[in-house]
């Protein structure tokens, strides 16, 4: 029996994110009162979200959370907390949190972790949404299903008419309430389980048949196993007997083979000796043929002659090898001398080339000096020039070059200073321009903010439906109502009806006879009185409408004349207003299209400007990159001197010349080093000079030569020069690699001026388009204000038009009723009929009628006074509310005017900023022009001095290279090197001729030795062949003697006999073996069959009997389970249908009672919910419809009832469902229950709710929550009997919803 205690709201819809609002719920009644839009329904939404986790309808995209824009934040956190109690001593607090983030134009809603805290007798437990299903836990602890919470207890106002929805939606709702899906799934699961059991039974029956077959086959397999084991034992006995016989035959055959083998060795030896004899005879014949002559000397003599021949041939070979070695030495020496001669000849050519180059360099130096003197206007160097004059010229040109460098540095400093001054002025102007532009942009943003604020205020102003006309009408109505109330009270006091009734009753007996005759005339007179009364009412209504129309015209005449023209008429105001609004909307559309065209043009210009700026950035970056690349390459050449980009070609050319000179130096160093090392080797080995071949007898002379050669070798260090050459080549590669960057740099500098001009033009076009766009914005804004002004008058125009139509209809009714009374003729009055009462006894009935009429008039007048009193109170409330609304409307209007004043001020700021920007642009352009002029003139002066310096540097470089070549030739000892090389060539030619003569003599001696060696080989061969022939003859005689001895033994016959006996025994062995193999094959076949049978028994039939028994048991138990599932499914279905019928009967009974006690009309006797059962797929399903009963006739209520009946029926059905299904949670919330209800039904509903509360107030957990703005409805409910306070929901000064507790006495 749970009940809710307290709710906390923060950051939901209009409830602010920084202040938490709390509301407590009372028993048995909680009242929540507030005007429309104050946030009352949000409380129901929060209750529903806290208990079910479901967001309200149409709240996707973060609509349920407070808007971050209103809070001024990029992220808003929303939280809802609900505390409820569950008897006997457990309290729960459920917390749900949401997060809404705004990123650019996108919104992101995120559900944060929720928690459920419980406190049971001091034991606290906390469960998060990550650990469990929070929605299920909350509904379980509340004791009511989620469907009841959603559709009945906390039903949203937009979904409160669900009982009148279409059949499919209604069926879905009731199925959720009855939890039909849960029970239906249970029945379906039972059916599925029964079906599965049936399928399993079919499989088990099939398996039972198979297991029975396996059981029978297992018995047969077991019998076959025993038979095979016996047959294998019998065959094994036969096999063992044959094995014994085979072993005996095999042993006897082995003995025969051994005896035959001994005779076979003799036969084989005889055959081998015969074969050797044939071979020896063939060898004897061949050796005889190879001999040149057959020698008669003894073998000993032949062996001695052979040994002496070997010694002589060895001596010849030794002499031949010595000659070959000597010849090779001569040849190597000759090749070395010739190679050295070739090198010396090449060196001689180089020395001669160096000498010729030296002479040319001398002539070129003189020419260069004279040419440079003429070029740079240096006097005194026209004739012959010696080394001294060349050095003087070199010093003078160096001095001129230094002077030009100092002058160039001075120009650099002066130009940089002037450019810095101009750049500073430009920066100051740009800063002013940026400041003006920022002021202008700030003013534009402020205008946009003001316009947004005006739009919000205009929207709020438009939402206030009341105006001065409405207030005037209410004042007029209040005044008229006060007059009517005073008049009715006065009439009631002055009518003296009690006295008249007493008089009429005193004369009643006198009027009995007259009443019968005058009854018809009295009835007619009474009817005409009613018609006159209706006519008077219609005339009063017509006058009231005319007064209202006059008030509206006087209030809004000036404004409507401004909008639709001076001659506006109430009958045509609607058409005139529509035409005027359409014209304004058309003008607004045209202005918007023109503005959109300008916007598109500005976007195109901005894209072009962005493209130009991007290209400029890329170009500047490329210029900087190329400049840095060139300067880095130049710094690698000269790190101590800051060179410009223009110096790259000159430095590259100079470095190429230096590298060429270094290569020449390295080539000369290599040859000189070889020569000095050779000279030192000759000096050390032979103690003589390489050039003159003179030996050194004086040690001091030798020491001087060694010192001179050591110094020369130390001077020419090739490794250092090669390292310098490699460094210079690397630097040259860097300079060459920087050439494309320099070309790119020069090209981009030439393009920059045109690009800057294009950028300036694009910026001017963008500024011009921006001005046009701002003008169009002002025009569109003015047009929008005109359209908004028309929209603000929409309700006024509709009110005037409807009032005029009501006047026309009222005039028509007055004319019709007047003509009807005039056509009915003249009838006597009631006084005339009373005067004739003594004349006619029938007038008694007329007297009684008059008494009744007087009684009715008295009651009517009293009711009129009471009704007018109630109306006066209500009208005072309306008037007070209207005054408040008008005050708010005036505040909005004042705020709008203030915002418009701010906009005008900001526009003035923009105009001043535009004026300042227009004045500063020419100054900036002038400053840029001055800077460019200074830059150009400075560059021209620098270029002139740089050209002069480069000319001097070029002349100096050429002269230095030539002078360095001359000095290098002399320093290397060019003339002496040439002389030494000629002497070395002559010495090498003599050495080559001597070696050539020695090689010719050695070749003749070697040829003679080769001839002697060739003749000695033939003699040796003949001796060897004679010795071989004699040895072969002796071997043939020995073999013939051995063969004769073997033939005499006759071993061949014994060998054949023993071999035949052994083969016979072997044949017997093979026969026995074949018979044994047959038996073994049979045994193996039967053994394989036994193994297969045993394997089949082990795998298939060993447990066949047990499996058959188990399967048979499963078949019988499955049959029993299927029968039980069928009975359980039927019982569950019947229970569900019985529960459904019982609940529907209970709901219909409660709904009928509530309808009959609430509804005041006579067209519907009662309502009920019909649930039509239909069978679908073997199960029962229900279709629901709400019906109304009228005179025992049942009809569908959907589509046949009014809006008020629809509201009342929905509320009653929800109350009935709550009472029937909400036993565990006696809670229901009614949101605006009086919507679309007339006053009688509102009063009746209030009385019914009063009765319900009174009947159930004893229930400890009964809680009724009523949310309404109708305080009269609360007075009809007599709420003060059930609660002392109520909750008022309102908006604070920041338009945030707040909840305040007030006394019930303020509204009852």
Structural class call reads alpha+beta
Q: Name the beta content range.
A: 5-15%
Helical stretch tally:
26
Q: Tell me the major beta sheet.
A: 7 strands, antiparallel
Helical amount among residues, as a percent range? over 70%
Give the strand tally.
15
Mean pLDDT: 76
Short account of what is shown:
The chain has 26 helices and 15 strands.
Describe this entry's structure for a reader:
It is a single chain. The chain is an alpha+beta fold and about 1300 residues long. The protein is about 75% helix and about 10% strand. It is built from 26 helices and 15 strands. Strands 1, 2, 4, 5, 6, 7 and 8 form a 7-stranded antiparallel β-sheet that branches. A 5-stranded mixed β-sheet has the order 12-13-3-14-15, sandwiched between helices. Strands 9-10-11 form a 3-stranded antiparallel β-sheet. Helix 12 runs antiparallel to helix 18 and helix 13 runs antiparallel to helix 16. It is flat, with a radius of gyration of 67 Å. It starts with a strand and ends in a 5-residue tail after the last strand.
What key phrases describe this protein's structure?
1308 residues, alpha+beta, 7-stranded antiparallel β-sheet, 26 helices, 15 strands
Q: What topology emerges from the helices and strands here?
A:
Elements: E1 3-10, E2 21-24, E3 29-33, H1 40-52, H2 68-71, E4 75-86, E5 90-103, E6 106-111, E7 115-120, E8 123-128, H3 134-142, H4 146-153, H5 167-177, H6 180-290, H7 299-375, H8 387-463, H9 468-494, H10 497-506, H11 513-517, H12 519-564, H13 573-637, H14 648-686, H15 699-715, H16 718-737, H17 739-792, H18 794-823, H19 830-835, H20 844-971, H21 974-1047, H22 1051-1101, H23 1104-1158, E9 1166-1176, E10 1179-1190, E11 1193-1196, H24 1203-1221, E12 1227-1231, H25 1239-1256, E13 1263-1268, H26 1271-1277, E14 1285-1291, E15 1297-1303
Parallel strand pairs: 3-13, 3-14, 12-13
Antiparallel strand pairs: 1-2, 1-4, 4-5, 5-6, 5-7, 7-8, 9-10, 10-11, 14-15
């Amino acid at each position: 029996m749970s009940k809710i205690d307290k709710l906390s709201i923060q950051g939901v819809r209009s409830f602010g994110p920084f202040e938490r609002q709390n509301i407590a719920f009372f028993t048995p009644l909680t009242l929540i009162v507030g005007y429309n839009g104050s946030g009352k329904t949000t409380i129901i939404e929060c209750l529903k979200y806290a208990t079910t986790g479901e967001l309200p309808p149409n709240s996707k995209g973060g609509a349920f959370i407070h808007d971050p824009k209103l809070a001024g934040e990029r992220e808003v956190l929303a939280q809802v907390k609900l505390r409820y109690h569950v008897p006997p001593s457990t309290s729960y607090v459920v917390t749900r949190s949401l997060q809404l983030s705004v990123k650019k134009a996108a919104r992101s809603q995120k559900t944060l972790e929720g928690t459920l805290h419980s406190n049971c007798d001091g034991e606290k437990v906390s469960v998060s949404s990550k650990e469990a299903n929070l929605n299920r836990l909350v509904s379980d602890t509340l004791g009511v299903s989620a469907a009841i919470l959603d559709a009945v207890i906390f039903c949203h106002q937009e979904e409160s008419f669900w009982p009148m929805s279409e059949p499919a939606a209604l069926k879905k709702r009731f199925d959720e309430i009855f939890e039909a899906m849960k029970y239906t799934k249970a029945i379906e699961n039972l059916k599925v389980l029964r079906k599965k059991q049936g399928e399993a039974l079919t499989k088990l029956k099939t398996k039972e048949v198979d297991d029975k077959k396996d059981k029978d086959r297992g018995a047969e397999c077991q019998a076959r196993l025993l038979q095979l084991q016996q047959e294998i034992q019998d065959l094994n006995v036969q096999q063992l007997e044959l094995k014994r016989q085979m072993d005996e035959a095999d042993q006897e055959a082995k003995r025969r083979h051994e005896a035959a083998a001994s005779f076979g060795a003799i036969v084989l030896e005889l055959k081998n000796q015969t074969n050797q004899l044939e071979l020896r005879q063939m060898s004897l014949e061949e050796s005889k043929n190879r001999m040149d002559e057959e020698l008669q000397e003894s073998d000993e003599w032949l062996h001695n002659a052979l040994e002496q021949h070997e010694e002589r041939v060895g001596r010849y070979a030794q002499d031949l090898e010595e000659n070959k070695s000597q010849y090779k030495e001569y040849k190597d020496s000759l090749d070395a001398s010739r190679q050295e001669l070739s090198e010396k000849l090449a060196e001689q050519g180089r020395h001669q080339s160096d000498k010729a180059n030296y002479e040319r360099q001398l002539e070129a130096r003189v020419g260069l000096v004279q040419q440079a003197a003429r070029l740079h206007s240096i006097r005194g160097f026209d004739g012959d020039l010696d080394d001294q004059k060349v050095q003087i010229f070199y010093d003078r040109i160096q001095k001129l070059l230094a002077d030009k460098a100092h002058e160039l540095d001075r120009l650099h400093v002066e130009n940089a200073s002037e450019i810095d001054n101009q750049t500073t002025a430009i920066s100051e102007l740009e800063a002013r321009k940026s400041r003006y532009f920022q002021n202008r942009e700030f003013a534009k943003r402020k205008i946009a903010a003001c316009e947004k604020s005006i739009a919000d205020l205009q929207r709020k102003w438009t939402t206030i439906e009341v105006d001065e006309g409405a207030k005037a009408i209410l004042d007029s109505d209040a005044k008229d109502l006060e007059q009517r109330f005073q008049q009715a009270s006065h009439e009631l006091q002055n009518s003296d009806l009690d006295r008249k009734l007493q008089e009429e009753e005193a004369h009643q007996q006198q009027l009995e006879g007259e009443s019968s005759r005058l009854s018809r005339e009295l009835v007619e007179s009474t009817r005409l009185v009613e018609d006159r009364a209706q006519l008077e009412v219609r005339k009063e209504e017509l006058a009231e409408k005319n007064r209202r129309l006059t008030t509206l015209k006087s209030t809004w005449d000036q404004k409507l004349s401004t909008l639709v023209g001076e001659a506006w008429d109430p009958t045509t105001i609607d058409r005139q207003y529509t035409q005027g609004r359409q014209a304004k909307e058309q003008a607004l559309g045209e202005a918007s299209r023109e503005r959109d065209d300008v916007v598109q043009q500005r976007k195109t210009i901005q894209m072009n400007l962005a493209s130009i700026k991007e290209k400029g950035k890329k170009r500047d970056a490329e210029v900087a990159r190329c400049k840095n690349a060139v300067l880095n390459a130049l710094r690698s050449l000269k790190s101590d001197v800051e060179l410009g980009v223009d110096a790259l070609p000159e430095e590259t050319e100079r470095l190429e010349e230096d590298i060429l000179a270094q290569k020449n130096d390295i080539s000369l160093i290599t040859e000189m080093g070889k020569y000095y090392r050779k000279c030192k080797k000759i000096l050390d080995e032979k103690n003589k000079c390489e050039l003159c071949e003179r030996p050194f007898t004086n040690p001091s002379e030798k020491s001087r030569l060694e010192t001179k050669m050591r110094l020369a070798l130390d001077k020419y260090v090739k490794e250092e020069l090669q390292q310098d050459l490699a460094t210079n080549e690397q630097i040259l590669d860097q300079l060459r690699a920087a050439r494309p960057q320099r070309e790119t740099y020069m090209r981009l500098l030439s393009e920059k001026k045109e690009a800057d001009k294009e950028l300036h033009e694009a910026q001017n076009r963008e500024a011009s388009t921006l001005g046009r766009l701002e003008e169009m914005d002002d025009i569109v804004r003015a047009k929008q204000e005109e359209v908004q002004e028309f929209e603000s008058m929409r309700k006024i125009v509709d009110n005037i038009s409807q009032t005029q139509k009501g006047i026309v209809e009222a005039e028509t009714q007055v004319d019709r009723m007047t003509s009807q009374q005039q056509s009915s003729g003249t009838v006597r009055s009631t006084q005339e009929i009373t005067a004739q009462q003594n004349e006619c006894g029938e007038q008694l009935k007329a007297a009684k009628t008059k008494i009744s009429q007087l009684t009715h008039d008295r009651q009517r007048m009293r009711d009129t006074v009471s009704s007018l009193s109630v109306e006066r109170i209500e009208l005072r409330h309306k008037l007070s509310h209207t005054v408040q609304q008008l005050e708010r409307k005036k505040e909005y209007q004042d705020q709008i005017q203030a915002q418009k004043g701010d906009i005008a001020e900001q526009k003035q700021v923009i105009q001043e900023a535009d004026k300042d920007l227009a004045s500063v642009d020419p100054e900036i352009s002038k400053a840029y022009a001055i800077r460019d002029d200074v830059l150009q003139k400075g560059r021209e002066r620098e270029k002139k001095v740089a050209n002069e310096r480069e000319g001097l540097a070029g002349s100096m470089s050429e002269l230095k290279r030539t002078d360095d070549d001359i000095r290098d030739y002399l320093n290397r000892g060019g003339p002496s090197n040439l002389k030494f090389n000629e002497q070395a060539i002559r010495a090498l030619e003599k050495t080559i001729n001597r070696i050539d003569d020695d090689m010719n003599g050695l070749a003749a001696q070697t040829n003679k030795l080769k001839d002697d060696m060739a003749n000695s080989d033939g003699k040796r061969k003949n001796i060897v062949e004679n010795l071989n022939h004699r040895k072969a003859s002796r071997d043939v005689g020995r073999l013939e003697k051995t063969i004769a001895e073997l033939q005499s033994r006759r071993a061949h016959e014994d060998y054949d006999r023993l071999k035949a006996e052994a083969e016979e025994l072997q044949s017997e062995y093979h026969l026995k073996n074949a018979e044994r193999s047959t038996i073994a094959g049979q045994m193996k076949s039967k053994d394989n069959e036994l193994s297969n049978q045993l394997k089949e028994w082990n795998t298939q039939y060993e447990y066949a009997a047990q499996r058959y028994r188990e399967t048979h048991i499963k078949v019988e138990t499955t049959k029993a389970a299927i029968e039980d599932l069928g009975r359980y499914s039927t019982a569950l279905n019947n229970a569900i249908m019985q529960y459904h019928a019982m609940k529907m009967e209970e709901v219909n009974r409660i709904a009928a009672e509530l309808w009959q006690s609430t509804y005041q009309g006579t067209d519907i006797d009662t309502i009920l919910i019909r649930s039509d059962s239909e069978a679908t797929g073997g199960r029962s399903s229900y279709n629901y419809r709400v019906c109304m009963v009228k005179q025992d006739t049942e009809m569908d209520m959907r589509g046949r009832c009014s809006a008020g009946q629809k509201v009342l029926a929905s509320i009653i059905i929800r109350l009935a469902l709550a009472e029937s299904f909400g036993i565990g949670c006696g809670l229901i919330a009614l949101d605006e229950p009086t919507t679309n209800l007339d006053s009688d039904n509102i009063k009746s509903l209030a009385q019914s709710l009063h009765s319900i509360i009174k009947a159930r107030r004893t229930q400890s957990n009964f809680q009724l929550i009523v949310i309404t703005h109708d305080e009269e409805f609360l007075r009809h409910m007599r709420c003060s009997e059930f609660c002392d306070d109520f909750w008022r929901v309102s908006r604070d000064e920041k338009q945030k919803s707040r909840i305040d507790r007030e006394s019930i006495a303020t509204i009852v």
